[in-house]
Amino acid sequence: MHAYRTHTCGQLRKTDVGQTVRLSGWVNRRRDHGGLIFIDLRDHYGVTQCVIEPGDAAFAVVDTARSEWVLTFTGKVVDRLEGTANADLPTGQVELRIEQAEVQSAAQELPLPVFGDMDYPEETRLAYRFLDLRRERLHKNIMLRSGIIRSLRNRMHEQNFTEFQTPILTASSPEGARDFLVPSRRYPGQFYALPQAPQQFKQLIQVAGFDRYFQIAPCFRDEDGRADRSPGEFYQLDMEMSFVTQDDVFAAIEPVLSGVFEEFAGFTGKTRTVDKAPFRRIPYAQAMLEFGSDKPDLRNPIRIADVSTVFGRADVEFKAFKGKTVRAIPAPGAGAQARSFFDKLNDWARSEGAPGLGYVILEDEGGVLTGKGPIAKFIPAAALADIAKSVNAKAGDAVFFAADKEDRAARLAGLARTRIGHELGLIEPDAFRFCWVVDYPMYEWNEDEKRIDFSHNPFSMPQTDRESFLKFSGADDKDALLALKVFQYDVVCNGYEMLSGAIRNRDPDVMLKAFEIAGYPNSETEARFGGMLNAFRFGAPPHGGLAVGLERVVMLLAGEENIREVTMFPLTQQGQDLLMSAPSDASAKQLKELHLKVVYPDKT
């Protein structure tokens, strides 16, 4: 017989009754019943109930066991007594009668219990992550993550993609976040950068002629954490393809995403529906207008409309909205809500930095649509009818308004749309709704620095012919450049960005011009991206690709609201590893070897 186990703790069934077996695992739960001791023994595979009576040879050993001790039991598999079977456990029809017991490892008093699913402070959970990972929910989440990665790999291989690994120590690249820098011992004063993404390398792989690349890529960004973003490091399904159009890229990834979501949709025990390919496509400008965000949650039926022209009419006397962008957000059925509903939304808007949300409640008076509320008296019937028509509202509904500069009005309207959807219970439950957001603007106006800047990925191909683009002269063509679209695209699911990608700019002259317009002289662009630019000068195929945020995929499928619940060893939101005490001080010897001195911030 094996020294530790003949079976796992999730393996025994009625067909094993009568066998003498050996199990090893952790004490998940201990119960004393009239002298009998019941031990629920747990390992990676499941739980088996084990029992021993006073007077049995191993009783004294078992009696000492406490939660999370590691034990080995040998004994016979027997049927559970009538009425005591546990239908919730695969092993629930049998139990092990303990004949021999051995303590492999005792456990100290636990800083957090493993049995059950009580909430504990994040600091405790992360400092004792090895205990936290023993808990059933988190353990299942990590196994889900592994299953999703395996599924993604299989689906990519099925489409003739080949997995390659790209360097970890590389050069700094402007991916929109701060780099993690690694000092060089051999080259004093010089630094490697950990890759924010394998962007340049995956394009070079295409130039090298490998056609279809992917990897489960680690990425490093020195940015603040939040619920849907890990501070420090994360993983993505990275892919790139040669000789493709935007439609080809979409056709390659849609069955991968929808297939993975369909495969794991039942993980939480609920029946959840998944959009099938092809996914809906929404231009960026439309997304910002109708949803107030480039991450639209299609489970929410509310659609925003621009009513600036209505409030600009002479017969509308509400002066606070004059000259502003005004967005209308319908609230279906909200006319039946108490005044507190509207007051609460106004308070919420103020917490977002807005003066509040104007609103009208629509009513029917003898077949004529009328309004009530603080600003209703300033809106004549004809204007009210136009507003109602623009958002498809009717009597019994309410309409809220966000008024400000265009970008601020769009943002507030988008947040209000989400808030109202949740408050009124309008969000479609148990569904995964996908869409592409396409036709992003190539540039945006940097108001602080009064210059044109990249709005997204700087390596993307503009949606114009080569000669026209090369004629742009920067600030002199500001309006045309801000109207210029680019072959960039995102997939959004339930309000979360799942992936981002682009058809790449492979023309060295166009790339130099693109960076020049954004304020980078050619010499700087050559210095920073010379490897890729030089490669393009030796024959670059048309190519494009994308990256899928792995943690967000797992988070949605696991039904979690925080990315740390699907990451094995995450950092805190402040970027600390409480388990390994990182970051930590470097020794004087290490600093000397790296030719570094630490300058601490002024505490005053």
Q: What strand order characterises the main sheet?
A: 6-9-10-24-23-22-19-12
Count of helix runs: 17
Number of strands: 24
Compute the gyration radius: what is it? 30 Å
Low-confidence stretches: none
SSE class: alpha+beta
What amount of the residues lies in strands?
25-35%
Estimate the helix proportion, in percent. 25-40%
Inertia-based shape: globular
Taking all residues together, what is the mean pLDDT? 94
Q: Distance between termini?
A: 68 Å
Give the biggest beta sheet.
8 strands, mixed
In short:
This protein has 604 residues and is α+β, with helices and mostly antiparallel strands. It has 17 helices and 24 strands. It has an eight-stranded mixed sheet with strand order 6-9-10-24-23-22-19-12, with helices on both faces. Strands 1-2-3-5-4 form a five-stranded mixed barrel.
Explain this structure.
The chain is an alpha+beta fold and 604 residues long. It contains 17 helices and 24 strands. Helix 4 packs across helix 16. The protein is globular. The model has no long low-confidence stretch (mean pLDDT 94).
Give me some keywords for this one:
604 residues; single chain; globular; eight-stranded mixed β-sheet
What's the layout of helices and strands?
Blueprint: E1 20-33, E2 36-43, E3 46-52, H1 59-64, E4 70-79, E5 94-105, H2 122-127, H3 129-132, H4 136-158, E6 162-163, E7 181-183, E8 191-193, H5 199-207, E9 212-221, E10 232-242, H6 246-264, E11 273-274, E12 280-283, H7 284-290, E13 305-306, H8 308-311, E14 325-331, H9 339-351, E15 358-365, E16 368-372, H10 381-390, E17 398-404, H11 406-423, E18 431-432, E19 434-441, E20 443-446, E21 451-454, H12 466-470, H13 478-483, E22 485-493, E23 496-503, H14 508-517, H15 522-536, E24 543-549, H16 550-558, H17 588-593
Parallel strand pairs: 3-5, 6-9, 11-18, 12-19
Antiparallel strand pairs: 1-2, 1-4, 2-3, 4-5, 7-8, 9-10, 10-24, 13-14, 14-17, 15-16, 15-17, 19-22, 20-21, 22-23, 23-24
Helix pairs in contact: 4-6, 4-16, 5-15, 14-15
